[in-house]
Design a protein that fits this description.
Elements lengths: L4 H37 L10 E5 L3 H10 L3 E4 L3 E6 L2 E6 L1 H4 L17 E5 L3 H11 L6 E7 L2 H4 L2 E8 L5 E6 L2
Parallel strand pairs: 1-4, 5-8
Antiparallel strand pairs: 2-3, 3-4, 6-7, 7-8
Length: about 180
Amino acid sequence: MRAPRWIVHTLLRRTFLGRLVRSSLAVGTMAAPVRRARAQSEGRGRVVGFDHVAAPMRDTEAMVAFYRSLGFKVNEGRGICSVHFGDHKINFHRPHVWEDPATRLRAPAAQPPCGDFCFVWEGGEPSLLRTLRQAGADLIAGPVERTGGKDGGTARGTSRYVRDPDGNLLEFIVYP
């Protein structure tokens, strides 16, 4: 029996990203001080955070309703629906955008579901569980202790995992 295509694509993507991160860490560890010194001496800036990420979506109505029920602000446009939290957003491309071969400014192999998003949840685990339940999200894993991105990637938190209507993985991490 063959694995479904989305599982194969997910495994290939994770393998590629894992190799990329490991090689970047190895090269970055040696080259980071040199790059930093060069950038400082040349007066260059640096990356300070994410503005947004983008992913294709298949079921627009279900996705918009789901993210609104989780408390996100959602803006609907002709080509994208953007989901806002803090100073960040996710642009979900409508099907007519990502399926159009003329659309070049996107990952060419990206198809729903292709996103793994981790959100920081403030308000404690009881309010997270209540919100997920009200949104109709089925818990697929958790609580799981994780090291998150906070404090330079050293802070520990507790994560819970669900899927959105298109099948993207959503992780909600709660820091103590």
